[in-house]
Design a protein that fits this description.
The complex is a heterodimer of chains A (272) and B (406). With 272 residues, chain A is α/β, with parallel strands linked by helices. Chain A has a single domain, classed as Alpha-Beta Barrel (TIM Barrel), CATH 3.20.20. Chain A is built from 12 helices and 9 strands. The radius of gyration of chain A is 17 Å and the shape is globular. In chain A, 56% of the residues are buried. Chain B is α/β, with parallel strands linked by helices and 406 residues long. Chain B contains 16 helices and 14 strands. In chain B, strand 1 and strand 2 form a beta hairpin. In chain B, helix 10 crosses helix 11. The longest helix of chain B is centred in the first third of the chain and has 19 residues. The radius of gyration of chain B is 19 Å and the shape is globular. The N and C termini of chain B lie far apart (47 Å). The chains are: A alpha/beta (272), B alpha/beta (406). At the A-B interface, helix 3, helix 5 and strand 6 of A face helix 1, helix 8 and strand 11 of B.
């Protein structure tokens, strides 16, 4: 069984929801990512979304773009993302890793080589923001050949017809983008999210993760009442950005700030 | 052009999902898919809508001032001593460039779709001005995204946009140029997709933009084809146009694609020279990839990151190119070449002095290559060079390069 499937089944048996933090590989320094990933799991994260930087992240807001720019100062490539995943697997063989990025670096590597290397290095799912199902035939074939889950986004503007299209190709989970707009945008209308998530459930049995606009324990808890997973991105990246110029103990401070946030979210989600 | 088989039906491209061969397509985030679908439908309906087309034609005639002249640059031709150079005078359009052909078309579509707000990205500022102009004309709110670097390079156009009532938003991310402005405009569109129409300025972006912008710009080639036959009794031997995203070039080329005798040259910006790596010539020196919603040739590094481009001309300073050009390159129908900053500047001066026409720096690249090509041809042959814009906006840049204080 895939790590993602096993993870959601385990949580479901415990009546818990998944907490999915996002970190950009190599932000604000390549040494931070690996210890942070382990610490996040200890703080209650169930799945890790590992960002692969792209120079032109047009679906992301300024917070994630800045993270990508910080990471690219160290020339972080897909090979570096794989290397981090591989190192993570040395200590943790259970927590799923989902890579999130843009298509062009994957195109340059080639779908086959990408899928093979991703699988060999312990990556379980891939979200490619600018790859809609319509263009994804070869990409999906390559990922599935190596048992990697292609994870697709669903937006507030996604029609029911498109939900069916997405349901036909997605596996692992689907990621409901709870706001129109880019990552890190304003506040969330939780009632609206509940309605959409219920609609999505009519078209697919996959677990539904909700992300965009979740930046505190309270919102995480209320979203987790309808979703199977809560994705936290910009709120974490903001905490990394705040320490970007720190020369010593950078990792320790970031780990503390991020795990404090995750612990509070975990607690609030489990209390529901 | 022996490689080109006459079997290719150029008018059938792109396919239903926007593919030109392996290029083009729709590589957009999920939030935009529905909006792109609606746009595709509105655009397809407009093609067969006689009232829409009549409104478009009327605006091109009475607001833009079309047809633009095809001018025989006799003195320039004589000075070079080769083929006869004809200039397609898009610089004489309202707002001073070909860009308005497209913004009129898209604004009419926005109106038909009931959108009250238009947004645009701009590099040289010509597309921003053309968008702000039509927004004023149709009474729409207008926001233009422009790289902070370009805002400095193109100050007169920034002021022009503001006079026209547009809000100009400086973009400070990435290389602070056209590609970053495009990223930012795309973000605005994702956020405000319900009431906002994104007027893309070139033949790039996700389907239907490359096809739609081409169709709005193809008026250039249709007119030139007729004008050339009226003036010389035959088709031209060659066409030359500059290429940033490639809208003025595809506009000129498209109506001639099936004419095998007509050679075509798309001129990219070689910046400091292709060998230096400091240029903006993805077709000449880049590789295929995916950016801004479509698959095309890109300037990218070994990891697939987009690299910064360089050109003296802000309008050509873009790391991608329209997907139809990528396809036309691969099938060998169009020759893609490049002119350096230096060659463009020299052409700028020569045309200004000899013909009394000040070309935009973008168009100066086409003029530079056109003169080079003409010199290798005989005086009984004819070349059309697309003079896509006028150079008034560039005089500050040029004075600065030449150490002149205005």
């Amino acid at each position: 069984m895939s790590r993602l499937k096993a993870c959601f089944e385990r949580l479901s048996a415990e009546s818990k929801k998944a907490l999915i933090p996002y970190v950009m590989t190599g932000d604000p320094h390549p040494d931070v990512t690996l210890p942070l990933m382990h610490a996040m799991v200890e703080a209650g994260a169930n799945i890790i979304e590992l960002g692969a930087p792209f120079s032109d992240p047009m679906a992301d807001g300024p917070v994630i773009q800045a993270a990508a720019e910080r990471s690219l100062e160290f020339h972080t490539s897909l090979h570096d993302v794989f290397a981090i995943a591989k190192q993570f697997r040395e200590k943790d063989d259970q927590t799923p890793i989902v890579m999130m990025g843009y298509l062009n670096p994957i195109e340059v590597m080639g779908y086959q080589s990408f899928a093979k290397l991703a699988a060999e290095n312990g990556i379980d799912g891939v979200i490619t923001v600018d790859m809609p199902p319509e263009e994804a035939e070869d990409y999906i074939v390559a990922l599935k050949e190596y048992q990697i889950d292609p994870i697709f986004l669903i937006a507030p503007t996604t029609t029911e017809e498109r939900m069916q299209k997405i349901a036909a190709v997605a596996s692992g989970f689907v990621y409901y983008v709870s706001l129109k707009g880019v990552t890190g945008a304003a506040t969330l209308d939780v009632a609206g999210v509940v309605e959409r998530v219920n609609l999505i459930r009519q078209y697919m049995d996959l677990p539904i993760g909700v992300g965009f606009g979740i930046n505190n324990a309270e919102t995480a808890a209320s979203v987790s009442s309808c979703a199977d997973a809560v994705v936290v991105g910009s709120a974490i990246v903001n905490r990394m950005a705040a320490q970007k110029d720190k020369k010593t103990e950078q990792t320790a401070i970031i780990v503390k700030d991020v795990t404090d946030l995750l612990k509070s979210m975990r607690e609030a989600m489990d209390a529901k | 052009m022996s490689k080109v088989k006459d079997k290719i039906d150029y008018s059938s491209m792109p396919d239903e999902r926007g593919h030109f061969g392996v290029y083009g397509g729709i590589f957009a985030s999920e939030t935009l898919m529905q909006a792109l679908d609606e746009l595709k439908e509105a655009y397809q309906n407009s093609i067969s809508d006689k009232a829409f087309q009549a409104g478009f034609d009327a605006d091109l005639a009475h607001y833009v001032g079309r047809p633009s002249p095809l001018y025989h640059a006799e003195r320039l031709s004589k000075e070079i001593g080769g083929a006869q150079i004809y200039l397609k005078r898009e610089d004489l359009n309202h707002t001073g460039a070909h860009k308005i052909n497209n913004t009129i078309g898209q604004a009419l579509l926005a109106k038909a779709m009931g959108k009250k707000r238009v947004i645009a990205e701009t590099g040289a500022g010509q597309h921003g001005v053309a968008t702000a102009t039509v927004a004023a004309r149709f009474g729409m709110e207008c926001v233009v995204y422009m790289g902070a670097e370009d805002i400095i390079r193109q100050a007169p156009n920034v002021y022009r946009m503001k006079l026209l009532g547009a809000k100009v938003v400086p973009v400070t991310s990435g290389s602070k140029t056209l590609k970053d402005a495009l990223n930012e405009a795309m973000r605005d569109w994702v956020t405000n997709v319900d009431d906002t129409f994104y007027i893309i300025g070139t033949v790039a972006g996700p389907h239907p933009y490359p096809a739609m912008v081409r169709d709005f710009q193809a008026i250039i080639g249709r007119e030139a084809r007729q004008q050339m036959q009226d003036q010389t009794g035959r088709l031209p031997d060659a066409l030359v146009a500059c290429i940033g995203g490639g809208s003025n070039a595809i506009g000129l080329f498209h109506p001639f694609l099936a004419d095998d005798s007509v050679e075509m040259y798309g001129v990219e910006a070689a910046g400091d020279g292709l060998e230096t790596g400091r240029h903006a010539a993805p077709l000449c020196a880049g590789k295929p990839g995916v950016l801004h919603g479509n698959r095309t040739y890109l300037m990218e590094d070994k990891d697939g990151q987009i690299i910064e481009t360089h050109s003296v001309s802000a309008g050509l300073d873009y790391p991608g190119v329209g997907p139809e050009h990528a396809w036309l390159k691969d099938i060998g129908r169009v020759n893609y070449v490049a002119a350096t900053d230096k060659e463009a500047l020299s052409a700028f001066h020569q045309l200004t002095r000899v013909e009394g026409i000040i070309p935009a720096l973008e168009s100066s690249h086409a003029v530079a290559y056109g003169m080079k090509l003409a010199a290798e041809m005989s005086p009984d042959q004819n070349i059309i060079v697309n003079l896509s814009g006028r150079g008034d906006k560039d005089i500050n840049t040029i004075a600065k390069i030449e150490g002149i204080e205005l």
